[in-house]
Specification:
This protein has seven helices and ten strands. The C terminus is likely disordered. The longest helix has 16 residues. Strand 7, helix 6 and strand 8 form a beta-alpha-beta unit. The protein is α/β, with parallel strands linked by helices. Helix 5 runs parallel beside helix 6.
Length: about 240
């Protein structure tokens, strides 16, 4: 049987608040296989943002283990986590997080700079990815010369550029109108169809409906884990 690309066991995350300890994640077990398309949902305070930060190696757990693509990241140093983030995970954020005075091409190529690739290689790969996301005619444009949807396409291109194991998208349509949201979600469908593992964090049911598996958190635990008809008929909903 294939090894899960994400394998989390007994993950907890506590945060100090004054003299108290707030338990945000209360023992999460989660496996995600390569090539899955997963939506992570939950109301405010459910722990979904905390779990996303852990999945993205932006934070570390209080206890438990996290094996990402065969590597135990729960025991890594900050420097090791930074390397894993750049190599294994492509991030897409609600606010795009683009460098404002930098062209689309250079924004997309940026993770390759940190990965130590030479400029000709960076330009070639960034050009390839911008073409893939439908922006071959906007490579020299800066973010303020692009629409919201185009900016998010640049952000998606940047997430793809290092050929990561996982695309992790946090409310990727949160700042977009309905029509543009559909276009961006169709782009994620294409990315998934190309073999990428995609994890969406969203509070919107219509966005989650694009995924093939929906994991719902409540009060720091997984409340339900449901496979839709597109992904599988399996349903592991808990009572």
């Amino acid at each position: 049987m294939a090894q899960p690309i994400i394998n989390i066991k007994g993950i907890t995350r506590d945060f100090p608040l004054g003299n108290e300890i707030v338990k945000v994640l209360k023992g999460i077990d989660l496996q995600i296989n390569k090539g899955e398309y997963v939506a992570l949902m939950g109301p405010s305070g459910s722990g979904k943002s905390t779990l996303m930060n852990l999945l993205g190696c932006l934070d570390t757990a209080t206890s438990g283990t996290y094996v990402l693509n065969g590597k135990d990241v729960s025991i890594m140093s900050d420097d090791e986590l930074a390397t894993i983030r750049n190599k294994e995970i492509g991030f897409v954020f609600q606010t795009f997080n683009l460098l404002p005075r930098t062209t689309a091409l250079d924004n997309v190529a940026l993770p390759m700079v940190y990965a130590g690739h030479k400029k000709p290689e960076r330009v070639e790969r960034a050009t390839e990815v911008l073409t893939q996301v439908g922006l071959s005619d906007r490579m020299d444009h800066k973010p303020n010369q692009l629409s919201g949807g185009q900016r998010q396409r640049v952000a998606v291109g940047r997430a793809l550029v290092n050929k990561p194991s996982i695309i992790l998208a946090d409310e990727p349509t949160g700042n977009l109108d309905s029509k543009t949201s559909v276009e961006i979600m169709n782009l994620f469908n294409d990315i998934h169809a190309n073999g990428n593992t995609v994890i969406l964090v969203t509070h919107e049911e219509d966005i989650a409906a694009y995924a093939h598996r929906v994991i719902r958190l409540r009060d720091g635990i997984i409340e339900s884990d449901t496979y839709t008809k597109e992904g599988s008929s399996k349903d592991t909903t808990t009572a």
